[in-house]
Design a protein that fits this description.
Oligomer: single chain
Shape: elongated
Order of helices and strands: HEEEEEEEEEEEE
Radius of gyration: 22 Å
Strand content: 25-35%
Number of strands: 12
Largest sheet: 5 strands, antiparallel
Length: 166
Amino acid sequence: MNKKVLIIAVVIVLLAVVYWLSLGPVAAPSTENVDGGGTTVEAPQITVTNKGALGIASGPGGEYLVDKNGLTLYVRGADASQTGTNIKTSCKADCEQTWLPYLMDETDPGISQSTDPLLMKLNAFTRADGKLQYALGNQPLYRNVDDIKLGDVNGAVDNDWMVARP
């Protein structure tokens, strides 16, 4: 009889361990403070001040721009020489598999009425596919497909791709 009890106890412990492991990693605690400057979200070593369509992340690498979900935004050096209001993206089909255009959502508030200094630099332009893409000044904004959580900066940053800075 003791052998049966031991086997049942081992099975219960194994099931408990499998269940515990299936829960995945525990999320880091975050806090949210709302004030006149927008929403501030803090994660370990990263603080994001959300300003609507954009946010400013502060962390070990300094300040950089994030989308409304806290994901890192990038600009492309090839787009830097544009002037005027006729903004175009140099990142096309194959490029967009890795560098996702930061598109304006139908529910996004208008950006032209903002008095925030950062948001006043934000533009939207109509892409060849008819969608609206955000741009910082004349530089289209992109996200990297490998960035999946707050603080990720997995884009291959080089002379052509750079983290967008305020």
